[in-house]
Amino acid sequence: xxxxxxxxxAKLTSLFQHGATEASRALSLWLGRNATVGVDRLVQLxxxxxxxxxxxxxxxxxxxxxxxxxxxxxxxLFCFDESSGFLLCDLLxxxxxxxxxxxxxxxxxxxxxANIVGCAYLNSLALEFGQCIETNTFSQTKxxxxxxWTPTPPQFVRDYAASILEFAVMSQATEFDTILVATxxxxxxxxPVAWSLLLIPDAPSLDAIKKVLx
Amino acid sequence: xxxxGVRREMGLLRTLLGSCIGVALFERRLKLVGLAHIVMPNSxxxxxxxxxxxxxxxPEVIRQLxxxxxxxxxxxxxxxxxGANMFxxxxxxxxxxIGEQNRIAVEEILKTLGIPILAKHLGGNSGRRxxxxxxxxxxxxxxxxxxxxxx
Lengths: 214, 151
Prior knowledge:
heterodimer; A: alpha+beta; Chemotaxis protein chec; 8-stranded antiparallel β-sheet; 7 helices; 8 strands; 43% helix; B: alpha+beta; CATH 3.30.1330.200; 5-stranded mixed β-sheet; 4-stranded antiparallel β-sheet; 3 helices; 9 strands; 33% strand
């Protein structure tokens, strides 16, 4: 059974595009170069298809996952294959491409990027959804804003794509037979990079989002 | 997630697991194997998505194996894997116990059906690729960054 109608999907896509715009600004500041985050797609997938939404199920991916609690709760997942992940580290650390192991410096770079991009994205969504959602971020404090959405610290993982996704979508999977996943695209100075940002609301949040959308 | 597969003689079944449980059922003499990727312990009476729930997936695998075998009763054994807790995220605290709930449900159902569990590879904090071979009842477990294990 589909969770959202086509018109609701269209409204959500528009809201997520606002989040992507804010994420672009934050990532550009963070990297010190022009970066663009765009909404790739917002789709409802079967359980089997959801676990391949990042590519082949048994491809090894690296990812940083953050939980989110508050009026919108669930998981946000920042994923990349290894070479794309090392590219991120080299951009941040201002060095020629030579990262090849996930040591503390590399994993910290990835996690902090996930934190900055994810927080910017979600704060924008929280403002767009309005209602009782109050925001506070680690890097942007808006006057008159309060804390009602709290992300958990990012955690780094290197595992099979399907295994990572399975955990991230589990809340939806326990309630529904389809999974709502929003994926994004990244460009650095007009060059596409194979990073993915997935926003995966949990089951109770999907109900809350539906009420907001009408 | 939530899918079932059966094979006879020459054939492989594979699945990728996180917190879900993979249940492989073997009929050694007839060289049959079935594999279920179980997401939740209890269907609460739901009749669709049979492969998703332990209490419907396991009987459904048995039904499909019985149909292929054209035999009234099969001598089945089981090997199970999965149930990892990959992320300690407080927002999903209810789902971090799903792996353990699935394990308990699977083991109880197999015990009730009189199907012995020959091997297990459970828990931890990593995903698994589970490959099941019909001919020799071997289950291979692949974990990223580790050597392949046979159970």
